[in-house]
Amino acid sequence: MTSTMMKATRVLARAGVIVASLLTIPTAEAQQPAGITRTDLQRHDLSAPGREAVQVRVDIAPGKAFGRHSHPGEEIIYVLAGTFEYDIEGRPPATLKAGDVLFIPAGTIHAAKNVGDVTASELATYIVEKGTPLLTLAK
After folding, report:
1. CATH code of the region 29-137
2. I need a surface site. Which of 6, 75, 88, 139 has the fewest CB within 10 A?
């Protein structure tokens, strides 16, 4: 195979991987309650085998809540705007405003509610095992 053909094959293979990865990003927005928007921002493999980092922007309208759920890995939250109340299993409720941060351990059941009068937004970063659902609703 010539050098040019090998380069073209590599470029096409990379393009295929990128398209495939975009198609496999979960479409959480289709299953969201009214007043809640989850926007997938990025997803990358980590140096730890089988692990990936996922970043999502979550916007919740005033008075709306995202019910009890958990994640298969750690969740690191940075509040961008508004005021959230987080109900984390085993802890008293916590109220956070823009600039505040929160760490939720893997598998911990929690819920979030916008307790302010403007849309509340957060940047959520997940460190999870590849191939597992990002979110599981609690029963």
Report:
1. 2.60.120.10
2. 139
What is the pTM for the complete model shown? 0.75
Phi, psi for 49 (deg, rounded to 5)? -55, 135
Return mean pLDDT, the chain.
85
E-strand ranges in the chain read 36-45, 51-60, 65-70, 74-81, 83-88, 94-97, 101-104, 110-114, 120-129, 136-137
pLDDT of res. 29: 38
What sign does the CA torsion over 70, 75, 80, 86 have? positive
pLDDT in tens, 78-131: 999 999 999 999 999 999 999 999 999 999 999 999 999 999 999 999 999 998
Domain extents in the chain: 29-137
Residues in the chain: 139
Structure tokens at 55: 């970043």
